[in-house]
Amino acid sequence: MHLSDLRASMQSCGLQPPPDIIPGRWTRFSGAGKKGKNKAGYCYLFPDGLGAVFGDFTTGLREVWQAEKVKTYTPSERVDYQRMIDEAQKKAAEEQEKEYARAAEYARKKWESLPPSIDDHGYLSRKGVKSYGLRQTGDLLVLPLIDAAGKISTYQTIALDGTKRFLTGGRKKGCAYPIEGNAKIVFIVEGYATGASVHEATECMVLVAVDAGNIQSVVEAAIKKEYPLIIIAADNDNQNQSKNVGINEAQKVCKLYPQVTWIAPPAPDGQGVDWNDYVTAHGLKASRALLMQEPQPYTAEATAATRETVIPAHLIEGRGLMSLGMEAVHELSATNIPQYNFPIVLAHISAALAGKIRCGHVHPSCFFIKVGGTSTGKTETDKYTKSSIFPHFNQVVNKKDGSPSEIKNTLYGPTDFASGAGLMRAVQRQPICLMMLDEITFLFMKTSAGYDSNAQSKTKAILELSTSAGMRFERPYSDTANTIVIEYPVINMVGNATPGIFKTFTIDDLHSGLIQRFDFFCYDGHAPRKGGVIPQTDSPQGREFAERLGAIHKAEKPDSRYDIIIDTAVDIGMDAEAEKLMAAYSDETIDRVNAEDDDGIKGIISRRYHAAIKFGLIHAGATRTAEDLFAPLQAADIEYGQALATLLADWKLNVLIQNIHAGDFDALCQMFLEGAKGAIKAGKRPTGKIIVNRKPRLKNITPRIWDDIVKVLRARGQIRIVEEGKTVYEPLAD
Questions:
Q1: Which of 261, 357, 516, 704 has its CA 20 to 30 A from that of 526?
Q2: Entry pTM
């Protein structure tokens, strides 16, 4: 019975199960739509016969199947079962990489042995396009797919009649065939003939993704290369809107990446038209006019209107050093996007205050992520601001070994680190610093087998340093010579990310505390015009901002016999009015925490308290003279801190939570919700069994993924749990 369920599950994914599936043994068979000697399909049935991992190396399919519950698992059994799944997934991933490597080597050698194709090849002639770098074997055109490293990953063959096939076992995802041209605009298309037609009409660079399912991965790879403008030249399949694969895929991708746009050729009702069809019918000139028009981004309700961090003017204007800093960053970088400039200013003030003042155990230690499209100015704010301020914090120091003096920058720390230990060593050398990272998405990236171990080590290091702000930190090793001791670290960090970072967030990030540590400033628009402003290497505002930062940085701490550790910051405390405000804010925060049952959401809310004090310290540093720096926090400081802390926490609760788990997982969440709503409509209670009966694909997910789905839907306010003898997942009104 269980085996028949497994076979049904494999068939639902497009696989034809092999005749024999033996518990505890890996089985290889033909992949989806393949016959004969093809061995791209695989299945591993667990020894107990109650679970399995199966997939297809060619398509990248990887699924977990579980039989209907036949027993109640103890916590220990659940751990063992999950370990079995993880190990099987890991082995499948390793085998897949071996397949990819084998195919890539074969493809490379095959490609190198082939002659260039002829322009009058039957397929090319029929489509009216030329060969742009293609090669030929017999009557087959050969189209190599190039990976992010510029190497051949696999290839596609095109027969005279247009039949297309791929090399068995090759990696297709994220790989494309490039048609070189003007890279100021990069078009991404499905097929070669479409790509050649778009290139001939525009003279622009084209990336051929070979099918609609690969568009998103190719877009993601193109974004990393930071092309100025990326346009999906979509097929208009036009059967009806629900089945228009070309346009629907383009819209989906542009919703995920607002900096990417799309355009499709007009088509009569019921007829499918791609850009090769359009160019053939209307000519190059008309096609160019249509393709090169100002493209419009996909504007679903959940893009610019909801994801952007709206910063009220009163949090910037009239705030002393903050206001000056905003003017300085604008003049230095020619970028006037508050979501980019404001965190830079806050981080610089916080870094200047670090090691000088604290309030209780709260230090000015901030972790910011600027989120925005490629080429919208994130990096410019960093580069030009840092280059202008950097010289003001250079200091001549004597080396400990007595060798000649060296110049050391006392404000800025490393801009990158290879590992968690590397970050620790860097902070050991400079315990108080501002780190400005060009790309921070790596902290949240996952591999197919789970977390990237190196990214995980970096994440762990950041969590530890954040928790250890202002305290002596020690990480022991078995080799005592390698033990890391950091004297009272207080670091600040600003990193950049594209909207693709939303796809990397998972429930684990929420529950690990990583998301809680960072505050996000999201800009969801396109690159604005500079308005005649050009970046400046020096400016009056820039100099004044740097000088005032320096005055804070060099402020002499008052002697205090009450400081047990004299090398740490001075606890400036709060005056009576400020304490009253924080007491009320604490009560409000605790009440909101107690009203939630998800630990991740509780963490976001609870961190408002310390964030309010942290931002209050920054406000004090921005609005006081260096001489008044060590006076207690006042009501105005705390009011400002609470306003900013609430704003950033609410953004996480109302926006970030909605974007956790994109792609396949999000589809599962939607499937779960549809199953629950369908049950209600049919007059049934939406129990787990009823939902699975309505949505059989959910039968294949692991208990951990089921729990994650429930957590996400509850966090989004889309379901609630009702205990009526059985657990009922009641959908809530949209």
A1: 516
A2: 0.53
